[in-house]
Write a structure and sequence with these properties.
Length: about 190
């Protein structure tokens, strides 16, 4: 997938857990990735985690690029089998998502929002996707604001084994509406 935005062009490819592990390790252990919960992970831990994801038919990981350079990690999962089993009633067309923007010393205004928009474009490119589901940590206020900006609506807090999470949903229609408003410069 390739998408242009105001901050450049984004592309996404399937993650190669062995080839990409060193890069991912530097991202997930960075202090800015605290909510990713892999701060103490060793390189082998990251390889093992992403090999397991790659082998799972219900969980997929992708490496995202900005103007040809690695810039973010995206995970897509089926909430009927991964992450949210027994925590909510999945609907047909539900797709779970995680994303992580690479740490940088030179932040670009609007970059993270452009990344989540590219991720959502990728998820909704599949006509079977009707709704995207996320479950960020309840204390991650920055991601809550980003999620809201692209159309997520919080449903309720849930208890996962590793965190208290804010279960939120974004329908295709809501995302496209928010995307259209943002493209026209309407502040949300």
């Amino acid at each position: 997938m390739s998408a242009a935005s105001q901050v450049g062009t984004f592309t996404i490819r399937p993650l190669d857990p062995l080839k990409d592990a060193e890069l991912l390790h530097s991202w997930v252990t960075h202090p800015k990735a605290a909510f990713w919960m892999m701060q103490e992970a060793k390189l082998q831990d990251v390889e093992r985690e992403y090999m397991a994801i790659t082998a799972n038919e219900h969980h997929h990981a992708y490496l995202g690029f900005h103007d040809g350079r690695p810039a973010f990690l995206m995970e897509r999962y089926d909430p009927r089998y991964i992450e949210l089993v027994g925590l909510y009633e999945p609907e047909p067309g539900d797709v779970g998502m995680h994303f992580l923007v690479a740490p940088t010393d030179r932040p670009v205004h609007g970059f993270t929002r452009a990344v989540i928009t590219a991720v959502m474009d990728e998820l909704f490119a599949d006509p079977r996707t009707r709704r995207v589901v996320v479950e960020p940590d309840v204390t991650n206020k920055a991601v809550h604001a980003l999620n809201e900006a692209v159309g997520f609506v919080p449903a309720r807090e849930i208890d996962k084994p590793e965190k208290r999470a804010l279960l939120s949903f974004c329908t295709r229609e809501r995302f496209l509406n928010r995307r259209s408003l943002a493209t026209r410069g309407v502040s949300l």
